Amino acid sequence: MENLPNCPKCNSEYTYEDGVMLVCPECGYEWNPNMEEAAEGLVVKDANGNILKDGDSVTIIKDLKVKGASSPIKQGTKVKNIKLVEGDHNIDCKIDGFGAMSLKSEFVKKI
Predict the structure, then answer these.
(1) Which of 40, 47, 52, 60 has the smallest number of CB atoms closer than 10 Å to its CB?
(2) pTM
(3) Closest C-alpha to 108, from 73, 58, 66
(4) pLDDT digit string, tens, across residues 73-108
(5) Where is 58: in which H helix or E strand?
(6) Which residues form the Protein YjdM N-terminal domain (predicted)?
(7) Residues of the chain with CATH 2.20.25.10
(8) Phi, psi dihedrals of residue 96, rounded to the nearest 5°
(9) Measured CA distances, 61 to 17, 46, 76, 80, 95 (Å)
(10) Which residues, other chains included, contact 5 with Cβ-Cβ below 8 Å and sequence gap of 6+?
(11) What is the pLDDT of residues 40-74, one digit of tens each?
(12) 94 touches 103 (CB < 8 A)
């Protein structure tokens, strides 16, 4: 039996091959062990296709409505020191006047 690597997310030892991909049956994570990006971890791109990193500064590219707020986040708002996370809203940040927010990377561009 081959010695496959543990899952990079949950560290499960029960990974298996599915074509060129490796799959973890416990958490459902799939990854390609041959891709350089998989070794780097989470890869998030802005609206223009630029790769974002933790600590980058971005600009909002369209007005974003915020639940519970009386006004939207305006286009052109600068956001400093972002943190990348997994999920649908893959950027965590603080926006002046709004506080802590989660944003989708498709609505920002790197400064």
Answers:
(1) 40
(2) 0.62
(3) 58
(4) 999 999 999 999 988 899 999 999 899 999 999 999
(5) strand 58-60
(6) 4-32
(7) 1-35
(8) -55, 130
(9) 40, 10, 6, 15, 14
(10) 15, 22, 33
(11) 567 889 999 898 999 999 999 999 999 888 899 99
(12) no
